[in-house]
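Take our chain:
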Amino acid sequence: MSATKAKRRGILYTSAIVLAGSLLFLGFGITVPPDIGTRIGGASILAGAGAYDEALAEIELGLREHPDSMEGMVCRAAVLAHAGRYDEAVAAYATALEHEDASGDMRRSLRQDRASILLHAGRDAEFKAERDALAGDGIDRFVHTLDAIAAVKRKEWGTAAKHFRVAYDEKPSPALTGYLWDALLNQGRDAVAAGRLEEAEVCFLDASKLFPNEAKAFLKGGEVRLAEGDPKGALTILAACPEDAPGLAPLLFRCATDLLGEEDKSIAIEVLSRAVRADRESALALLDGEPAWADLRGDERVMRLLTAENDSAEPGETPGAE
């Protein structure tokens, strides 16, 4: 969905909430305001579409209805941060920290969030003070997360991945999973650019374990194996890649072409068949422009791929997978 469409849908969603609430109040005399969770849901949709002013208006309305809602305070702080209004976000987090429910790990999480905003705002001395104060609490994952965020800002992806890994291993969370995945992908890309292919492969494989249904890490791992001249190793990695992943067909075609030098060309043709299943148009366009396949264009199996409207062959075990 485009950002514009998402924004429109968010606005319609929020308008529907407000309209429905108004009708209930006017028609049936209900005096209890809508649950703050409804407001937060609407604000989150709007913020995700980049409609920050509308999101803030929605959450401000929720806070007028539920002035003591800690969830509302935190949502307001987060939306301000995403809007780049860092000084206001820091103040909003300070307000949330004054709430009676802000204790234990919840309080530490809020301090961590506020510290990260201080970092983005360029208030480095205040960031360091908060980071050191959290370190004094003796719970490592909050400090390692802040050290990782600081490393991300410097684009030191290996350092970021190391710190995110420590925090993740101590207590996994969806947020840390995403942060670690992104850091590993960026570390892997930097390693490829520097020619450190073994390091890159480890990064991409580690990332693929975090999100098995996300194709990027598998594709990057396959690229590394191909760069190392190991098409069968690339196929081993790509075997776990979702079949409909954009970019899979060209990599499979490269594997197939590299395998043409093998004594038995059947493996190369089987891999070519998988490339056609992944993206017929892309694979056949590559085949048309690759001279290495010229001698096999008359092969019955290749001709079948060229002429069939749809390749109905069922994918089997990936050739060359160990």
